[in-house]
Amino acid sequence: MPTQKQDRNQLALLQGTLDLLILTTLVLGPCHGQGIARSIQRQSEEVFFVDHGSLYLALQRLEDRHWISATWGVSANNRKARFYSLTPNGRAELHKKTGEWQRLTRAMELVLGGGD
Length: 116
Hints:
By secondary structure, the protein is of the alpha+beta class. Helix content is 56%, strand content 14%. The protein has helices at residues 4-9, 17-26, 33-43, 52-64, 88-112, and strands at 31-32, 68-74, 80-86.
């Protein structure tokens, strides 16, 4: 659980970015929800903190779209957990969304003056 100071230093995720972050995390292999959240937090150098409510809604949405699949398994701490995997459709969506974000960030750099 982040402290108030951490809350102020963390950036709010733009709508749709959580899906991309989850898909990117699952490229590394199957993972349970808590592991996905920790991976996003660690890879973002503690900037992104994924609320569990938002995470599980996003996982359900991605599963409904057939971008991920889920199976029951046992976590490292010996608890029953759902493990999520990237599907071929999810891999294609990840490729598409990554290109969109690369164009968006390049445009932001240009507007903000960092793309000289």
